[in-house]
């Protein structure tokens, strides 16, 4: 089954490219950029990745990404991920990035945009992969800062496939970003948002109502609200679920407790994704295999999940026809 899952053409819709930074590359970039890390060895980094919740992960995620300073760093980061994803049978990747986490360190917008775009073009040429770019806003910072970033990103509007919303969820409800998402809508940029990861089902409804999103990132809290589940089933608005992430951030206790089977049973349009593969113990293939080990799904279910992602990906119709 693992061989079959590797060969199944998979589409990744929920990947923070900064969360694909493996400890080995973190050390290499720290040396290249003369940045001190609070870790003595790669083993020490791995030992530190023992998270109690989302915030405990975010603290190390923002710490690790300080080694990213130049366009070449972002290129190397994304290329390393594309190589691994290609080996795992991933045929389309939508990478999100957090410009505010870089701007705050003096890394101007052009650096991630140009480095990531160059890697995306190279992955398309070398691996025949298709790619898309999502610019995410940090919800635990002021909405005015997100608005400034959106305006500053105007030279790249053509290459932004969507804007997103991530970081610490509880206490930062979607409505805080109503004006920013309204501006993105006016610019014709599609919108996605993390909702219902650690936050309540009400944040999912609010993100749909106020931010007019076309996809929900995570959304595992939806089962708390029957009317919302009904709405998600009827609208077929997709959820980008990240099972290994949910276990590592203690959103669920173990894989077998994960609500994915219940979500499928209720007819919600779910997809499988990796979120931050360097921090959560695996990429796309590991997430698929973990679901097989926990739920024993047959090939039909995995084809449906991969097919759901193809249906809702930011890709051309010609590319979609190639993949179905
Ligand atoms: N940023 C990177 N990974 C995230 C996650 N799982 N939830 C919220 N923000 C994130
Ligand atoms: Zn995420």
TrEMBL record:
Details of cofactor binding: Binds 1 zinc ion per subunit.
Residues holding Zn(2+): 14, 16, 194, 275
Domain of life: Bacteria
PANTHER family named in the record: ADENINE DEAMINASE
Signal peptide extent: none
Name the record gives this protein: Adenine deaminase
Residue intervals of the Adenosine deaminase domain: 9-324
Keyword Hydrolase: yes
Coiled coil: none
Annotated site residue numbers, Important for catalytic activity: 218
Matches recorded under Pfam families: A_deaminase
Entry-linked CDD domains: ADA
Known role: Catalyzes the hydrolytic deamination of adenine to hypoxanthine. Plays an important role in the purine salvage pathway and in nitrogen catabolism.
Requisite cofactors: Zn(2+)
InterPro entries registered for this protein in UniProt: A_deaminase_dom, ADE, Ado/ade_deaminase, Metal_Hydrolase
Protein family membership: Belongs to the metallo-dependent hydrolases superfamily. Adenosine and AMP deaminases family. Adenine deaminase type 2 subfamily.
EC nos: 3.5.4.2
Catalytic activity: adenine + H2O + H(+) = hypoxanthine + NH4(+)
Active site: 197
Keyword Metal-binding attributed: yes
């Amino acid at each position: 089954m693992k061989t079959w899952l590797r060969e199944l053409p998979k589409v990744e819709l929920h990947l923070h490219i900064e969360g694909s930074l493996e400890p080995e590359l973190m050390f290499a970039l720290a040396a290249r950029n003369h940045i001190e890390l609070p870790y003595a060895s790669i083993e020490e980094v791995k030992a530190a990745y023992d998270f109690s919740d989302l915030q405990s992960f975010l603290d190390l995620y923002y710490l690790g990404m300080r080694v990213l300073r130049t366009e070449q760093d972002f290129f190397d980061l994304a290329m390393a991920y594309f190589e691994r994803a290609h080996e795992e049978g991933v045929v389309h990747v939508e990478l999100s990035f957090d410009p505010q986490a870089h701007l705050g360190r003096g890394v101007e917008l052009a650096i991630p945009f140009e480095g990531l775009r160059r890697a995306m073009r190279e992955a398309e040429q070398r691996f025949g992969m298709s790619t898309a770019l999502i610019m995410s806003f940090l919800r635990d910072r002021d909405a005015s800062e997100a608005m400034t970033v959106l305006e500053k990103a105007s030279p790249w509007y053509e290459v932004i496939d969507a804007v997103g919303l991530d970081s610490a969820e509880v206490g930062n409800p979607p409505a805080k970003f109503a004006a920013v998402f309204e501006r993105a809508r006016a610019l014709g940029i599609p919108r996605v948002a993390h909702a219902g990861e650690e936050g309540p089902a009400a944040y999912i409804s609010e993100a749909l109502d106020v931010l007019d999103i076309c996809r929900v990132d995570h959304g595992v809290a939806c089962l708390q609200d029957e009317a919302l589940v009904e709405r998600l089933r009827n609208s077929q608005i997709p959820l980008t679920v990240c099972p290994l992430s949910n276990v590592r951030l203690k959103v669920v206790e173990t894989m077998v407790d994960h609500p994915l089977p219940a979500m499928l049973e209720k007819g919600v349009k779910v997809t499988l994704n990796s979120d931050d593969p360097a921090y959560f113990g695996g990429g796309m293939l590991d997430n698929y295999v973990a679901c097989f080990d926990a739920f024993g799904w047959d090939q039909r279910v995995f084809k449906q999940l991969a097919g759901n992602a193809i249906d809702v990906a930011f890709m051309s119709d010609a590319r979609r026809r190639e993949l179905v």
